[in-house]
Amino acid sequence: MEDLYPTRRNEEVIIDRREPVVYGAPDSHNSNALSADQLATYESDGFIIIPNVFSAHEVDFMVREYETLAFNHDLQGREELVFEPESNELRSIFNPQRFSPLFDRISRDQRIKDKAQQILDSDVYIHQARINIKRGIHGKSFPWHSDFETWHAEDGLPRMRVLTAWIMLTENTPFNGPLFLVPGSHKQFVGCVGETPKEHHKASLRQQKYGVPSLNALNSLMDSDKLAGAFGKPGTLVFHEGNVMHGSPDNITPWPRTNLFFVYNSIHNTPASKPFAAPDFRPEFLASQNFTPLREVD
Amino acid sequence: MEDLYPTRRNEEVIIDRREPVVYGAPDSHNSNALSADQLATYESDGFIIIPNVFSAHEVDFMVREYETLAFNHDLQGREELVFEPESNELRSIFNPQRFSPLFDRISRDQRIKDKAQQILDSDVYIHQARINIKRGIHGKSFPWHSDFETWHAEDGLPRMRVLTAWIMLTENTPFNGPLFLVPGSHKQFVGCVGETPKEHHKASLRQQKYGVPSLNALNSLMDSDKLAGAFGKPGTLVFHEGNVMHGSPDNITPWPRTNLFFVYNSIHNTPASKPFAAPDFRPEFLASQNFTPLREVD
């Protein structure tokens, strides 16, 4: 299969995106679909922030559910459950939808799924999901990157027909280590420098070293007047395009910043027979091998 | 001399401020003075942000001047000049007004000095000054602290009749590691835990360990709805009260965030005969022993 987006080579290259951002169209018959204006925002910026999609009550349920999941018998000792090494506090739960009926239901909720299907104009499955808790005071920054770069290089996703939908479970403010995005950056692809080492995911989940654009690339993609922050109250829903450049600073407030992420991939974009720029596929909990299309909640 | 603000002991204590925030009054005859509204904001929040005080042209001159100062013969090898250890880039210049006629003039500029004198209702001198360059990508966060806690503990300033005035030399945005402040926090004093070690300033300029409030103290001082950021274009002037709690996250943008700080102390608040909670005074470049009142530019 042709590699449209070469990366992890000897030199950094910036090339144009070679496919659409929005595959679908407005649908006035579906109240869960994005409007023409919302689709246009997503197309030009590479993300859209939609407040008040989930109620405070629903968010409360999700918070209690993930706190309970940390003690779930099936999860103990598994890679899906990540605690802070020094404090033993919960940091991440991968694929909570596999261990919790509530998160399974949320992952198929029409308020999310219909929009993902609309943008990608196809059935979708979950490539990866996670809850991330960025602790107060100690929560660390994450450098600028394109998720797609990793999904392409290490997971073998051929095209950018993939996105992340996420729900704020705490307020995301300018102060608590929120996600910053570079509007429009999804229209270029930064092929990064350096051959991916074996088992790179073990290091990259903590600090990414491969697949990180250089200062030069960032300077050419970014304009200081045009950065954006994903700020919002709990229950806000964000869609960000797989290739949009994003990063986040550390969280110096005393309170955690917690978000629930679902990566929806088009069923027409399942992995190639091997990764495009890594010795092996990442493990299944980071890159699903189950391509069954998501259906409505029963 | 009575210690009104005990700190660096065995237990953390939070006590009320024991003196005014604003000592002076509005002065309609002086166009450089703060208005009654501005004084009220400073009194209640502990800071005030004033855009467009210095022109783009003036800021350009200041930027060129500090870049030149890095090569100033008198400064080479001195503690006032701080470079990044790994990259040799300029990080800080202390007391630039002592080495540069331009910064000397700025430090006495009526647009700053008159306001400082008005707030403190007295003549003032410069306790410390510095230019801080928080680098792009690598610029590190600084935890929450009150400057006065250190000035009291380590420099012997008896009272809170002291403030910092600072000028933005680059834009300060939500994205580039700006100063966050806790409005109203200047009305309480957090006496911190731990005896100050000898030569603490050598470590504390990089990472402060003593004089840092606990998570409990932060939780009691802060309200997540009420944090503030000092954002503004180059040339913006900020006054922040000596005891207001502030901190800053890291700078993940590719561009530096640069500010010029002057600490104005009332001549009625010169250091006691010894520090209140440290074995020795900090060196003179951090805590001036020259209490000559600032006068206008000649």
Tell me about this structure:
- Chain A has 298 residues and is of the alpha+beta class.
- Chain A has one domain (13-17, 25-266): Jelly Rolls, CATH 2.60.120.
- Helices cover 21% and strands 21% of the residues of chain A.
- Chain A contains seven helices and 13 strands.
- In chain A, the strands form three sheets. A seven-stranded antiparallel β-sheet of chain A has the order 2-11-7-13-5-4-3. The first copy, chain A, has a four-stranded antiparallel β-sheet with strand order 6-12-8-10, with no helix packed on it.
- The radius of gyration of chain A is 18 Å and the shape is globular.
- Chains A and B meet through helix 7 of A and helix 7 of B.
Number of strands of chain A: 13
In the CATH hierarchy, what is the class of chain A?
Mainly Beta
Strand order of the largest sheet of chain A: 2-11-7-13-5-4-3
Rg of chain A, please? 18 Å
Helix and strand sequence of chain A: EHEHEEHHEEHEEEHHEEEE
How do you describe this structure in short?
Chain A is built from seven helices and 13 strands. Chain A is of the alpha+beta class and 298 residues long.
Could you outline the blueprint of secondary structure elements for this entry?
Two copies of one chain form a homodimer.
Chain A: E1 13-16, H1 36-45, E2 47-50, H2 56-69, E3 81-83, E4 90-94, H3 101-107, H4 110-120, E5 124-134, E6 142-145, H5 147-155, E7 162-168, E8 180-181, E9 188-191, H6 200-204, H7 215-221, E10 228-229, E11 237-241, E12 246-248, E13 257-266
Antiparallel strand pairs in A: 1-9, 2-11, 3-4, 4-5, 5-13, 6-12, 7-11, 7-13, 8-10, 8-12
